[in-house]
Design brief:
Distance between the termini: 32 Å
Shape: globular
Structural class: alpha/beta
Low-confidence stretches: none
Helix content: 25-40%
Number of helices: 4
Length: 145
């Protein structure tokens, strides 16, 4: 018997939350890029997944949101992060994704599949977009099509 479960998760980002990128492989089977932000890790197994996540962060609304986000936020996600469980996402292929900006709350919401990131300031936004630009470049060298 196979049991399938879908979990929806929201990740809050504010301030200088470090991002780690780890890449293994030469484009063949088993190649992957891991993007880790706090207690969330996304394993990208192919270029379509890398393109999907990168597009969500770098195109359309997300590309312009940096102009409207506050420079810094009083919201400190690290104080609450100790209560969050570790989340691991294995991504292969394309998934639904969207980015919206809420002008009332002054926050960017980026959703890929069942994971939503809420970005509260430009510091967190700049760190994330820089990481996803690097992923896009690495994907062409590391990941299979």
């Amino acid at each position: 018997m196979t049991i399938t479960q879908h979990i929806t998760a929201t990740v809050s980002l504010a301030g200088a939350e470090p991002v780690a990128l780890d890449a293994h492989g030469t484009g063949g089977a088993g190649s992957l890029i891991t993007v880790t932000v706090g207690s969330v890790a996304v394993w990208l197994h192919d270029r379509r997944a890398a393109d999907c996540y990168s597009e969500a962060w770098l195109d359309g609304v997300a590309a312009e949101a940096g102009l409207y986000l506050p420079a810094t936020s009083r919201f400190d996600v690290r104080q609450r992060a100790a209560a969050y469980p570790v989340l691991a996402v294995h991504a292969d292929g394309w998934d639904r994704h969207a980015a919206t900006y809420n002008p009332t709350r002054r926050e960017l919401i980026v959703t890929v599949g069942y994971v939503t990131w809420v970005v509260f300031d430009r510091v967190a936004y700049d760190i994330q977009t820089d990481a996803w630009r690097r992923v896009k470049d690495l994907a062409a060298l590391i990941l299979p099509v």
